[in-house]
Design brief:
The chain has 183 residues and is mostly beta strands. It is built from one helix and eleven strands. The chain has a five-stranded antiparallel sheet with strand order 2-4-9-6-7, with no helix packed on it.
């Protein structure tokens, strides 16, 4: 008799579970409107240019392509730093950049960037200043520092104008990365 009662209870519980589960649909994908879109490093999608190049050219051991190669143990070095120096990325599609990183190179802290302005443009002629940093220092070699800023627009060009370094006639930077956040 007890076995019969246990069997009926188990059967009733099984029926309830089936009724409950039949209302669940797994095909529908959940969306969470409260979560922001994921940021994406888009540096490699941009075409790099500089207004002062390494004497060996862009593909030299310390040429300009090293500043966006994704490797922290390479660097871009120029021998004739001027406060008008800039590094620029041009994208095929406008990007919504809201942060960037700079990584100090392997030697001579006086060659590091000290003051700069990040600007955006859609034609390469009219620029909007997005972030300005002054008197920055890198406490160690190979140190990556992140700079976030408010930006509500997309731009095709992003230019990092290095207005001062640590006082040397030379300039060096291991890496510059930019991060896109879809609107």
């Amino acid at each position: 008799m007890n076995v019969l009662k246990l069997t009926r209870r188990a059967l009733a519980m099984l029926c309830l579970a089936l009724v409950f589960c039949s209302g669940c649909k797994k095909e529908k994908q959940r969306t969470y409107a409260l979560l922001p879109p994921d940021p994406e490093d888009v540096t490699a999608q941009g075409a790099l240019s500089v207004n002062i190049e390494n004497t060996g050219g862009p593909s030299a051991t310390e040429g300009s392509i090293r500043v966006t190669d994704g490797l922290l143990d390479t660097k871009f070095l120029i021998f004739t730093y001027k406060p008008t120096f800039f590094i620029q990325l041009k994208f095929k599609q406008p990007q919504h950049i809201t942060s960037y990183t700079l990584t100090s190179a392997n030697d001579a802290p006086e060659r590091d960037p000290k003051s700069w302005t990040l600007s955006g443009s859609n034609d390469g002629a009219a620029w909007t200043d997005l972030d300005t940093q002054t008197n920055q220092t890198f406490a160690s070699r190979g140190l990556t520092k992140n700079y976030a800023f408010d930006n509500t627009k997309t731009y095709t060009y992003y230019k990092l104008g290095i207005t001062a370094n640590g006082g040397s006639a030379l300039f060096q930077l291991a890496e510059w990365r930019v991060t896109n956040v879809p609107l």
